[in-house]
Write a structure and sequence with these properties.
mainly alpha; Arc Repressor Mutant, subunit A; two-stranded antiparallel sheet; 9 helices; globular; oxidoreductase activity
């Protein structure tokens, strides 16, 4: 199924009301990269929550036109996320630095560091705030809270079963 099943009227970016049809039109006008798509349609320039879906629509449309699509995670790894997952699992890679040294180049970026951090956590279940994993986390994960636009943080405690007693609420407040 995937994005091909969506109608052209489906809203992909709600921040700027960009539809699948708008993205298809941008591709027909010459857009071939996310940077060009962002510039042309403003998709994925607001909150960024639609970036993965916008990329899927872009790639799908390019493929339908016979254009080869690059699925590399970023410029530091010439592999897709799935390929990197396989490399980490098969080769027992335990750190970002080891993966970068053996299979990547450069220093890493805001795309590959959190992605590799997630891959490593899913296979090895190490504590994410260990020194070798700390730099891979985004701000929310480093501080175990959600950074707000005004620079403050909010914390949503996990509550098993979604039920909490007044006494436990008092403990959280302290």
């Amino acid at each position: 199924m995937g994005v091909d099943a969506l109608p052209d009227t489906a809203v992909i970016c709600s921040c700027f009301d960009v539809s699948k049809g708008d993205i298809k039109q941008a591709v027909a006008s010459g857009c071939t990269t996310m940077a060009e798509l962002k510039e042309t349609t403003n998709a994925s320039t607001g909150c960024g929550g639609c970036s993965a879906l916008a990329k899927q629509v872009l790639d799908s449309e390019l493929l339908s036109l016979g254009v080869e699509v690059n699925n590399d995670l970023c410029e530091h790894f010439a592999y897709s996320r799935q390929e990197l997952s396989d490399i980490v699992r098969i080769n027992q890679i335990k750190t970002f630095d080891e993966l970068l040294e053996k299979y990547g180049s450069g220093l890493g970026c805001t795309v590959c560091k959190p992605a590799v951090g997630s891959i490593l956590a899913s296979f090895w279940n190490d504590y994410i705030l260990q020194d070798e994993h700390m730099e891979l986390q985004d701000t929310n994960d480093i501080y175990l809270g959600n950074m707000q636009k005004d620079g403050t943080y909010s914390v949503v405690p996990r509550v098993a079963g979604g039920e909490i007693t007044p006494e436990k609420l008092i403990v959280l407040a302290r």
